Prior knowledge:
This protein is mainly alpha-helical. The protein has helices at 12-17, 23-50, 63-91, 93-111, 117-145, 151-176, 184-205, 213-218, 222-238, 261-271, 273-294, 297-305, 312-336, 339-362, 368-395, 402-430, 434-458, 467-472; strands at 7-10, 251-254. The protein is 76% helix and 2% strand.
Amino acid sequence: MHADARLIDTDLPARLDRLPWSRWHWRVVIALGITWLLDGLEVTLVGAVGSVLGEPDTLHFTADEIGVTVSAYLVGAVIGALFFGRLTDRLGRKKLFFVTLAVYLLASFLTAFANGLALFVVFRFFTGMGIGGEYSAINAAIDELLPARVRGRADLAINGTYWLGAALGALGTLVLLDPQVIPRWLGWRVCFGLGASLGLVILFTRRHLPESPRWLIMHGHLDEAERVVAEIEQHVRDEGKPLPVGDAPKHVVDTHADTSWARIFRVLLVVHRRRSILGLVLMVAQAFAYNGVFFTYPLVLSKFYDVKPDDIGLFLLPFALGNFMGPLMLGPLFDRVGRRPMIALTYGITGVLLAVSGLAFAWNVVGAVGLTALWCLVFFVASAAASSAYLTVSELFPVELRGMAIAVFYSVGTGAGGVAAPALFGRLVGSGSREGVLNGYLFGAALMVGAAVVAAFLAVPAERRSLEEIAEMGR
């Protein structure tokens, strides 16, 4: 017994962590992790659609108006992450991963029917809100449901599916934006309808997922948490996989979680200040490098290599596949070798490769195919680094504040990388100066190397540890 009646000893988290991998875990990964595929599909399609929306037979937007629509999506993502991140800690993971997906689905569907700038901007804003909210609710739920020993590789692989969505989006643009297949006035609308259709499918795949037992415990729903864990264990038994023998270790858990703003600020700025610095540096560096290169790559191809808009998807496809394979192949090392060495290595190597590729571009020693091959190599490593940033901010903070912690760092990264980087690189590409673009690449490289140094000192050895144990470390 504890002096504080709110504290209990429970073996439920340990029972979840020691489960053998099963089809039930695959269902969780697919139903929740497909969010990243959806985001990658959305971003790639919309990026390609941007060049079409300025044409007379579509919405005839100016370049500045297209920029406004991109900003509306990003602002929506930031606000959505913070708003829904707060709610996912207070109301539960399950409620929110239905609500956020529904917001995305409806807004994306309505975008297909926009007939002017005002409605288009409003619908893009709410689409962004849905995606931003998904990041908070889904990252929190996945980490709390998967066994600790595979959390690193699973998180990286799931985040990497963003690029599988990007690859599908690149393939889609070759058909949907080809005027010989679908008229221009209709093709861009079909692109938005496609994202909404996929979102509808995901709604059905999530119906049978439970609430996070960890969230239930911390909000005093002990009987419900016991029932959920027992059902998961039964699913595993039904597959013919024996459960580990012996009693699972117990953790001390507060059953009346404090999710007040005062607690959030105290945890982020005082109790775990070093972890906050780590998360901030990792998120900003990867967001700047990624968004700066990827979102302006179509501009580089058309400006410096005269690649036709209809052919850009052919160059984005290998780029996206390289990004997908990186976390898939390097992810297991984050559990075996450890978080600190792997985060530092992937960030450092990315910075060096980014600088080398930028120099090859600036000195004009590679063509469009050669530059694409270089980016495939760079982002094979960079994708694992970027995914490890999301893993870091989702596993290092107390369970009861995980949704909000993810939201804060996602919002900062999106603001710095999603807004500043494309604007800066867009201006540099627009100048027509290869040396100017190189300066942007070198700045991104410097951020990645700097983040590697920070990770070498501040990264936490969280591999194979329970979320409860990690939260107690460093207090």
